[in-house]
Amino acid sequence: MAAARGLSTNWRSGLITLIAAVILIWGYNATPAYALTLVQHADINVSNAPGQAGAVVTYTVSANNVTGTANIFCSPASGSFFSIGTTSVQCTGSDSGGDEPSSMGFNVTVNDVDPPTVTVPADITTGGGPSGAIVNFSATGTDNSGVSPQVNCVPPSGSLFPLGPTIVTCTAMDLAGNTASDSFSVTVVLDTEPPEMTAPANITRNNDPGLFGAVVTYPTPIATDDNPGVVVVCVPPSGTFFPAETIFPQQGTIVTCTATDIGGNTATVAFTVTVVDVEPPSITASADITKNNDPNQAGAVVTYPAPVVSDNGPGTNVSCSPHTGAFFAIGTTTVICTATDVAGNTASASFSVTVLDVEPPVLTLPSNITVIPNVLGGTLIYSPPAVTDNGIGGTVSCTVRSGQFLSPGTHTITCTATDRAGNTDTASFTVHVEEPPPFINPLPATPATPAPTVAPTSVPTAAPTSSPTRTAITPVATATAPTPVIGGAPPGTASATPIAPRTGNGLHSAADHQPLALLLGALLLVIAGGGLVSLGRRA
User: Fold this and answer.
1) Nearest by Cα to 233 from 266, 262, 203, 205
2) Is residue 41 within 8 Å of residue 71, measured between CB atoms?
3) Domain closes at, from 293, 326, 356
4) 199-235: per-residue pLDDT in tens?
5) 431 and 450, same domain (yes or no)
6) Do 458 and 531 share a structural domain?
7) Same domain, 366 and 498
8) Which of 70-79, 144-153, 494-503 has the lowest mean pLDDT?
9) What are residue 170's phi and psi, to 5 degrees?
10) 3 state DSSP class of 515
């Protein structure tokens, strides 16, 4: 019983403890009915401060259920400058009693109610044509918001304004839709005064590579007028391809520029653009030519192909010297070809023409010759052989030269003509030298000297003998002649020099050859005397 009673007491005590714990936990987490709460502030709408892009805004925020001292913080703070437009304000509050913080927000809107400012130009007076004038102008606007307002003018800038005054109204509108307007006048009067313009300096430049001309740009002349809107047009325009000059002296291409103002008044200036062709032509000459001489000619007529010529422009002239079809002498001749374009630029090329002399000379000899000799033989004298050749000469040589002494008999003389190209011609003629005539001693006979006697042997004395009878020598006149050279006597004039004819008994006069006769007589006396002495000694 006692035990049962104790168990019942412990059970009740544990249940109470559990209930108490639950109550404490619930009480700790529950928000007390007196927790701090910020009072919700209404949104604020204000106008901007005059001339400002916003306004200074003040406000007050309060709190309920404050334990102790309340601390409230807002951003942006009250009294701040709020720009035009809507700004969100966020506030947070707490108290010194440890209550949970509270927060709240609201909007502040600053409305732009100031109109913008528009600025227009002063009244405009300008000249124009019969239909008026195009007038350009500028109008601007400002606004307190800091953003430039859009400005629209009627009539807009760049419009064609008729003659007389026109009111232009310009309106500026800011971002808030506030507007402001202002106006000015545009008066167009008929323009009768032409513009003024100065031409640029003349232009000279070289051709573009490979082109017969050049693309030339030049500055547009500046025109001035009492009214705007002058239009300048040049013909040919800048950037045009200008051809190079083809005549002398070079004239250039005339560029004409015309300035026209709004009244239709004009002014004209001109200058020249000269493109100089400085590029020479290209020329390729023929290959070297070799040809034999024409028959019986000291050269040949040679034709050759025209050189190949190209140039950046038309009208190139080509000349060669010697020209094709000319007569070229034997040997090598240089042909120079020159190409000249219309601008005077030149280019040259050359090749050689060689004419070979393949034609031998023609040799004409004297007729066969008969020589009447003296006792020993004959001296050959003949005219130089005649030689004709198509070339420029050479030499002639013979196996026996004129003036050379020949023994009796028949001799063949061979002559060879050689021209300067090495061509030869050979021919022969004969010379017959007759037997010499009998010798005639011109001195009286001399008795033989008796032979001396020798003792004791008796030697018969030889009978005296007379000298042998000798016939007279027929001397022949001699002459000399130089070795003939091609180009000497003309063909057909060669002849042999005849021997002096015999007279009387067929012998020449002794007086004609007295020195030779005396010499031979003395020689015979010496020989005869020596023979007598020899005979005497033998006896």
Assistant:
1) 266
2) no
3) 356
4) 889 999 999 999 999 999 999 999 998 877 799 999 9
5) no
6) yes
7) yes
8) 494-503
9) -115, 130
10) helix
Kindly report the CATH number assigned to the domain that includes residue 270. Answer: 2.60.40
pLDDT digits (tens, 9 = 90+) for 9-37: 565 666 776 775 555 554 444 445 468 89
2: left (phi over 0), alpha (psi -120 to 50) or beta: alpha
Tokens standing for 379? 């001296």
Same domain for 405 and 487? yes
The total domain count for the chain is 7
**Residue % of the chain over a pLDDT of 90:** 50
CA–CA gap between residue 444 and residue 524 (Å, rounded): 12
Are the beta carbons of 98 and 45 closer than 8 angstroms? Answer: no
| String of DSSP letters for 159-224 | EEEPSEEEEEEEEEE-TTS-EEEEEEEEEEEE--PPPEE-PPPPEEEEPPTTSSEEEE--PPPPEE
Task: Determine contact, residues 393/419, Cβ cutoff 8 Å.
Answer: yes
Query: Average pLDDT of 502-522?
Result: 44
Three-state SS for 263? coil
CATH of the domain at 483: 2.60.40.10
SS3 helix, strand, coil % of the chain, rounded to 5? 10, 40, 50
Structure confidence by residue, pLDDT tens digits, 272-312 = 999 999 999 999 999 999 999 999 999 999 999 999 999 99
Evaluated on CA atoms 312, 317, 321, 327, the torsion sign reads positive
Domain span at residue 91 reads 37-111
448, amino acid identity? A
| Nearest in space to 385 (alpha carbons), one of 371, 373, 399 | 399
Alpha carbons 201 and 220: distance in angstroms, whole number: 11
Do 243 and 213 form a contact (C-beta atoms < 8 A)? Answer: yes
Verify that 379 and 498 share a domain, yes or no: yes
Most confidently modeled range among 171-175, 387-391, 444-448: 171-175
Residues 480 and 394 in one domain: yes
Q: Look at residues 100, 101, 84, 80 and name the one whose alpha carbon lies nearest to residue 92.
A: 101
How many helices and strands in the chain, by DSSP H and E? 2, 40
**How many whole angstroms separate alpha carbon 187 and alpha carbon 194?**
19
Tokens encoding 92: 């947070």
Which position has the higher pLDDT, 146 or 460?
146
Average pLDDT of the chain to the nearest whole number: 80
Q: Using alpha carbons, select from 390, 160, 192, 186 the residue that is nearest to residue 296.
A: 390
Q: Which amino acid is at 502?
A: R
- Residues 404 and 427 both lie in one domain: yes
337/302 same-domain check: yes
